[in-house]
Design brief:
Number of strands: 17
Shape: globular
Distance between the termini: 34 Å
Largest sheet: 9 strands, antiparallel
Length: 910
């Protein structure tokens, strides 16, 4: 292959950007290795553009200039070879549009008049090899005119790429001929192209769960991303036969406001994409958690006003992609309705003087409806909610909504007609949640309720809340409204029964709408939200009792889940205290429906049958107390006596006497009989009676009323101590997550420990007999030889988990009711965490009496009920401070090690 040579001096390129020193470049080509000269020029240009980006220059200028500079580099590379007039070098795709982000591909087409591949093969190979040698990231194809046409006919993606082309070098006539032969008059007519691209979009959106609100969104491919803007460009440009998007304004397809909105939204995503490429040093299109924080800082966001910098940045991102999807959806729909289906409407029904239904889609009766009658902006959604047969809104009506939504001002909000319309909407029988989502998408909901507008796109930077606050809120309303459906009634029978029988179901909808309305303001969002809902209720004419109920629901919407997951709901005192706070069945019913729907709307993976069982127990036990009246509960000793009596009656059937049972139980604490079902205690007692002396007893089985909700592991030992850390480590290594631990030890060191576990998919494992045998044998071996158990858990922490850092928080207080010390630990979730905590407990000679394990996304909020070695609450403040300090130091040190490992792995694999 001939060597590269620049013996013939080239003339400077007139299109070179100002910063590029062509004189020096051309001189260096005469004296140095050309590959090094080109590499140096490319490296210097990257540094130049990056510095300008860091100084705040807009991304549009940078990506356009970067494409311009690439044009010049390619021009010089191309002209080191001799070419005739039958071949051209053409930019295609994004580069063809004149856009080049830091690590985007440079897509090239080498176009020949005829198939002269043999004639040009050596020179093309030398040219492409040179581009690779100078480390230019290219995508290329080599085709003749006829091959381009054939490929474009067969593949809409090729046809799309060929629409966005620029001549870099060679014969411009070739490019024009190619554009004519692959244009809509020859192949892929405008309508056929539209249908093909919309089909592609649906497939692409489906891969991203058809939502703009993924936790780690792809800024290019996800709904509302850059591809959606490009889709508008491609389909509209092909129909109107124009080259630039700005020409669509003159064609009447885009309004000035729509054009400007698209441009501003695109500029923001370009800035994000440029920063993403810069930070990752590659063509990364995913906004990973680690990149989100760094980008927020890079783009000038800072913590404050109750929000993290990353939350402010991501709110702006979500608002932008929501805006893009709203506009692109309506433009695509308009293209279909106004152009491809023009004059094809079959059925027109008059709703009233203001609205008509055209082929099942709602439309305005006249173009200036909203200008003349602003209240129609709300009435439109009322009509949708009261008419089951309507499928959606015509694009022309949506564009009118967008144009006039600013008419919703303070006077509009004060108008009794509009307030009545909004309340009428909340009572609408059909698809209320869909109407509210439409109102949110088109900016109507946030304009009518400004407090709601503040939470649109607002995120919480964690793995627990997978949706922005506004989306979560509307999902919650969706969950509530679905309770009337048979499949949801089967899944949530109590909630469904309650909701169907509520006298005013709109009240629970209002509570849902306002439960998180004050997030991001700083302070307690429940208290602030209660103020907001009272203001809304008063404005909309609700009665005092209804307002009081709404305020109570907002203030207490987290209470039921908190108690069920952190407190011992088998304790009569816990139930009685909660019942007194609730007060009556009406408040309990409303809170139950709101809580169940809220948990499922926060994160679909958050709800498990185990959590459902905890919630149900709290609900029904509280209901029983309310039915019995809120008199003082019976003394615990009476509960214990009744429980023992029930157990003994069951044991008689197995021929185990009261004396035998008493000998097995010893002086096990009364709480054992309060917490566990009589049937369970009887089974445990029988298994212990049948066991071999000095051998640990291990019993595994799934538990639940109608379906298994967790796997129960009962462990009985004699003479062993501080086994919790050993058991926790063994279960962790087996991939089991402890949900609840109820630990009892007698004075002669016999344990009655009960664990409730789920696998990594939050499922019980009792049906897997082989695995259960492995669990039992592993536990038995560990109990008999605890010194052989490695308490270090080697399971890897996920990349997403490693992206979240927080300081461990520890609180400790004595509880007079349980005569224990309550320790609460909030820390990032890591493999082996529980084993490490219990190991710390054993070093301080602490007895774990109960443990409530709660995993919330990337963090855990665990509660432990402790006593000292003398079976008393911890009262020595200096020791308590040591315990808290040790937990914080050791857990935070472990988390830092995890982060450093992640960083090293990132360097090694980058």
């Amino acid at each position: 292959m001939p060597s590269i040579s620049f013996d013939q001096p080239l003339q400077p390129n007139s299109r070179a950007p100002i910063f590029f020193d062509q004189k020096r470049f051309l001189a260096d080509l005469q004296s140095r290795n050309p590959i090094h000269v080109f590499r140096d020029a490319l490296s210097a240009s990257r540094n130049h553009f990056d510095n300008r980006f860091l100084e705040g220059e807009d991304a549009r200028t940078l990506v356009n200039e970067a494409a311009q500079f690439a044009d010049v580099i390619l021009w010089y590379a191309w002209h080191q070879y001799q070419w005739d007039n039958n071949i051209s070098l053409i930019a295609v795709g994004g580069y063809g549009r004149g856009e080049l982000h830091p690590h985007s591909d440079i897509d090239l087409l080498i176009l020949m008049r005829k198939d002269h591949a043999k004639q040009y093969r050596e020179r093309i190979e030398m040219f492409l090899t040179f581009l690779w040698d100078i480390q230019l990231k290219i995508g290329h194809s080599v085709r003749s005119l006829s091959q381009c046409v054939d490929e474009a006919k067969a593949d809409i993606t090729v046809a799309t790429n060929l629409m966005e082309t620029r001549l870099l070098c060679g014969n411009s006539t070739l490019l024009q001929q190619m554009l004519e032969k692959t244009g809509p008059n020859k192949i892929w007519s405008s309508a056929k192209f539209y249908r093909g691209k919309v089909g592609e979009q649906k497939d692409r959106h489906r891969k991203h769960h058809d939502t703009e609100y993924n936790l780690e969104p792809n800024i290019k491919e996800a709904p509302g991303g850059l591809r959606d803007i490009q889709l508008i460009n491609w389909t509209a440009k092909r129909h109107f036969n124009v080259y630039r998007r700005s020409q669509l304004v003159h064609k009447g397809f885009l309004s000035e406001e729509e054009y400007l909105t698209l441009r501003l939204d695109e500029e923001f995503l370009w800035k994000v994409r440029y920063g993403l490429h810069y930070l990752s040093d590659r063509g990364e299109e995913r906004l990973l958690f680690d990149h989100q924080r760094k980008l927020a800082s890079l783009l000038g966001y800072s913590d404050g006003n109750g929000k993290l910098a990353v939350e402010k940045f991501m709110q702006r991102y979500y608002q932008t992609v929501l805006s893009i999807r709203e506009l692109t959806d309506v433009l695509l729909q308009y293209l279909d309705e106004a152009i491809y289906r023009k004059n094809k409407t079959k059925v027109v029904k008059q709703v009233n003087s203001r609205f008509v239904i055209r082929d099942d889609y709602l439309d305005t009766a006249e173009d200036n409806l909203f200008a003349n009658n602003p209240s129609a902006l709300l009435e439109l959604f009322v009509v949708l909610g009261e008419t089951e047969s309507i499928k959606g809104i015509r694009a022309s009506a949506i564009r009118q909504i967008r144009l006039h939504r600013k008419l919703i001002n303070e006077d509009f909000r004060k108008d009794p007609i509009n307030r009545a319309l909004f309340m009428r909407l909340l009572k609408a029988p059909y698809k209320l949640s869909i109407q509210l989502k439409r109102m949110n998408r088109y900016g109507i909901l946030g304009n009518y309720l400004p407090e709601f507008g503040k939470i649109v796109g607002q995120t919480q930077h964690d793995l627990f809340h997978i949706y922005p606050v506004d989306v979560h809120t509307l999902e919650l309303i969706t969950n509530i409204r679905r309770l009337v459906q048979p499949e949801e009634a089967a899944k949530f029978p109590v909630s469904s029964h309650i909701f169907k029988n509520l006298p005013k179901p709109e009240l629970i909808i209002i509570a849902a709408l306002y439960h998180d309305i004050a997030k991001g303001r700083g302070g307690d969002h429940s208290i602030l939200g209660a103020v907001d809902v009272a203001d809304f209720a008063e404005r909309h004419g609700l009665q005092k009792q209804e307002i009081a109920l709404l305020q109570w629901l907002i203030e207490n919407h987290l209470l039921m889940s908190t108690i069920s997951q952190r407190e011992d709901t088998s304790d009569p005192d816990v139930i009685y205290k909660f019942a007194r706070h609730v007060g009556d069945q009406m408040h309990l019913d409303h809170l139950w429906v709101l809580t169940v729907a809220d948990i499922n709307a926060t994160n679909p993976r958050l709800w498990t049958e185990w959590k459902g069982a905890l919630m149900s127990n709290l609900y029904f036990e509280t209901k029983q107390v309310l039915l019995s009246g809120l008199a003082e509960p019976a003394h615990k000793s009476a509960w214990v006596d009744n429980a023992k009596k029930s157990v003994l009656e069951l044991l008689l059937e197995s021929e185990i006497s009261e004396a035998q049972a008493a000998d097995i139980w010893g002086d096990v604490a009364d709480q054992f009989f309060l917490r566990e079902r009589a049937e369970d205690i009887a089974l445990f007692t029988q298994v212990i009676a049948d066991s071999r002396p000095q051998q640990p007893v291990i019993l595994l089985r799934d538990v639940g009323v109608e379906i298994p909700v967790a796997t129960q592991i009962f462990v009985h030992t004699k003479g062993a101590s501080n086994l919790f850390s050993v058991i926790a480590a063994i279960l962790d290594k087996l991939g089991l997550n402890i949900q609840d631990a109820r630990l009892q030890t007698t004075s002669d060191n016999r344990t009655f420990d009960i664990f409730y576990v789920l696998d990594e998919n939050n499922q019980p494992v009792g049906a897997n007999k082989k695995f259960c045998a492995t669990i039992a044998s592993s536990l038995k071996a560990g109990i008999l030889a605890p010194h052989k158990v490695n308490l270090e858990v080697a399971r890897r922490t996920s990349r997403q988990m490693k992206s979240f850092t927080m300081k461990t928080k520890v609180s400790l207080h004595n509880d007079s009711e349980t005569q224990t010390t309550v320790l609460q630990v909030t820390t990032p979730d890591r493999p082996g965490l529980l084993a490490q905590l219990t190991h710390i407990f054993s070093r301080f000679e602490l007895i774990v009496y109960n443990a409530k394990i709660s995993t919330l996304g990337e963090r855990v909020e665990d509660t432990f009920y402790l006593r000292d070695k003398d079976n008393r609450p911890l009262t020595d403040e200096s020791i308590n401070d040591q315990i808290k300090q040790t937990i914080r130091q050791e857990l935070d040190s472990r988390n830092r090690d995890s982060e450093q490992t992640s960083a090293v792995q990132g360097i090694n694999t980058g």
